[in-house]
Structures are given as C-alpha cells and as structure tokens.
C-alpha cells in the first residue's frame, strides 16, 4: 500500500518536471516584478532616477506603461527560466550522483550554474530581445518607434524586417550576462540552503527566504555590468548615416568605461537589485510551493 503513494521514477514526467516547475515559478514571479523591471530599463536608457522615471511614466503614459512588454517577459520566462532551472537541476543531480551522493563543493555548483545560464540564455534570447525593445520603445522619437503590440508580433516583425538571425542580436552579451547571473544565483542559493539548514538550524520557510535573499544579491552584483551592455546593444538604432553607436559588446564596454568609468556599469544598481532579489526570492518560493503541491499529489 505504501509503495502506491510514492512518485513514479520512470516515464517522461521525471525528466520534464524540473523544466515545467522552473518555467512556471519564473512566470509567476515575473507577473509581480514587471513594473520594477520596466523602471530599471528606463533608468539604464538615461531617463533619470527611479523616482523621476516613475513620475514621468505615470504622467505621460499611465499605469499600463509599467506592464508594457509583459507578454515578452512571460515568454522569456517560459523559455529562459524553463531551460536554465531545468538544466541546473539535471546537472546538479548528475554531479551529486557522480559524487556518491555527497553535497557538491561551491565551484561545481558554480560550473553547473554557468552552464545552465548559457543554455537558458541561448534558448530565451529572442524573447529577451523582444522584451527590451518593447520596454524601450516609448523612449525613442515617434518616427523611430516600432510599436510592437505583443511579444509574438515583435518576433514576427523582427524576422520579417531583419531576418531570422536578428532574433539573436545581442545574444553574446545576453549569454555572458546569464552565465554571470546564474553562477551567482544558483550556486549561492544551494550553498546558502545548506548553510541555513546545517549551521543555523533554520526551518523550511526561513531557509528559503534567507537563501533566496543571498542568491538575489549575488545574482545582481555579478550580472549588472553585463546587463547594462546587453541593454545598450539590443536597443541601439542607426543614426542618419546608417551607422550604429557600437560595433559590438566589447566596443560598448570600452566606450562606456572611457566615458563614465567602471561605476557606469552599475547604473541603477539599487533598483536592479530590488528587481532581481524579489524575483529570485519569489521564483524559489513559488518553486518550493509547486514542488510541495506535486508531492502531495504523488507527482
């Protein structure tokens, strides 16, 4: 009788489960975080402080502006987060099995995070490009605005106007940023969970909140310089002579360093951290709750 309640170990579900759970938790978190992400992008595009951006958006565009690009954000989570969290779970499970069931050292967790981030970003780059363009559209002169109506319209227009490979414009900095973010986020979360449980004796709720807070900070600190470059590359437009402001991510990084110094890469760090940390926290909390519900149903 007891064996009937145990989750089945065979079939397709155990393989796809980490991917489904990762995508679902990321999408739920995005629904809450989208307004903060919108403010962060506008700040990186030079529209002022968080307060100024918020006031201007409310006055000029209304409340709906804070959710512009939500469809692209959800599509991004359905691709990027599904791939990265699912891949990280599979990689760490295989690494633990190869380690005779012992907890992994931090460097192995970091390597798993780097790999998962690269795979997730490669899959999610088209949706990420659509999201950045939709969020930045209102900052452009009226004649240059693309006026995408939703994520799928954006993807269709990009392919029609610029070709299929344009979907991966800025993919290089996107992948590098994702590798840095996931190294900070995933490795520090697993390490913090072990520390909270084994060294501090925290319960489940306190462990998830504490570990996800640490995870969010390291994800933001590691990834913001790459996120800044990625945003600049993805939103750039040719001038009247058809010349782009940057030839690539390295050129963007060097020009930024020369004009504003290293701290320029951390423009909007408080807002970025506020955006990343809650998203990370809610992703882990939602993931924990989803897993508990599945366990109660024997899945």
From TrEMBL:
InterPro entries to which the protein is assigned, alphabetical: MCP_dom_sf (IPR023395), MCP_transmembrane (IPR018108), Mito_Metabolite_Transporter (IPR050391)
Organismal lineage: Eukaryota, Viridiplantae, Streptophyta, Embryophyta, Tracheophyta
Domain of life (superkingdom): Eukaryota
Coiled coil: none
Designated name of the protein: Mitochondrial dicarboxylate/tricarboxylate transporter DTC
SUPFAM superfamilies to which the protein is assigned, alphabetical: Mitochondrial carrier
A cellular component annotation (GO) from this entry: mitochondrial inner membrane
Membrane topology: Multi-pass membrane protein
Keywords per UniProt: Membrane, Mitochondrion, Mitochondrion inner membrane, Repeat, Transmembrane, Transmembrane helix, Transport
Sequence similarity: Belongs to the mitochondrial carrier (TC 2.A.29) family.
PROSITE patterns: SOLCAR
Keyword Transport: yes
Signal peptide annotation: none
Compartment(s) where it occurs, according to its Swiss-Prot or TrEMBL record: Mitochondrion inner membrane
Solcar repeats: 13-94, 104-195, 203-293
């Amino acid at each position: 009788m007891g064996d009937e309640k145990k989750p089945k170990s065979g079939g397709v579900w155990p393989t796809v489960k980490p991917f489904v759970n990762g995508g679902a938790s990321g999408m739920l978190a995005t629904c809450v975080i989208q307004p903060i992400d919108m403010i962060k992008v506008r700040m990186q595009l030079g529209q002022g402080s968080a307060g100024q951006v918020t006031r201007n958006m409310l006055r000029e565009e209304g409340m709906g502006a804070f959710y512009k690009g939500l469809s692209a954000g959800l599509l991004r989570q359905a691709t990027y987060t599904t791939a990265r969290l699912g891949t990280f779970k599979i990689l760490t499970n295989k690494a633990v099995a190869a380690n005779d069931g012992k907890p992994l050292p931090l460097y192995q967790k970091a390597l798993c995070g780097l790999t998962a981030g690269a795979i997730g970003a490669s899959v999610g780059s088209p949706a990420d490009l659509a999201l950045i363009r939709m969020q930045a559209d209102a900052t452009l002169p009226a004649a240059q605005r693309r006026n995408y109506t939703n994520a799928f319209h954006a993807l269709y227009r990009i392919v029609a106007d610029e070709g299929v490979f344009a979907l991966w414009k800025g993919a290089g900095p996107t992948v590098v940023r994702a590798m840095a973010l996931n190294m900070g986020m995933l490795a520090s979360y697993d390490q913090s969970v072990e520390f909270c449980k084994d060294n501090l004796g925290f319960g489940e709720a306190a462990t998830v909140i504490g570990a996800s807070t640490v995870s969010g900070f390291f994800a933001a600190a590691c990834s913001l310089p790459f996120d800044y470059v990625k945003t600049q590359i993805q939103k750039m437009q040719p001038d009247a002579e058809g010349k782009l402001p940057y030839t690539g991510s390295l050129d963007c990084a060097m020009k930024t360093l020369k004009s504003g110094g290293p701290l320029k890469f951390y423009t909007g760090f408080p807002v970025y951290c506020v955006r990343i940390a809650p998203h990370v926290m809610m992703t882990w909390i939602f993931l924990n709750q989803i897993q508990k519900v599945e366990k109660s149903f024997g899945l």
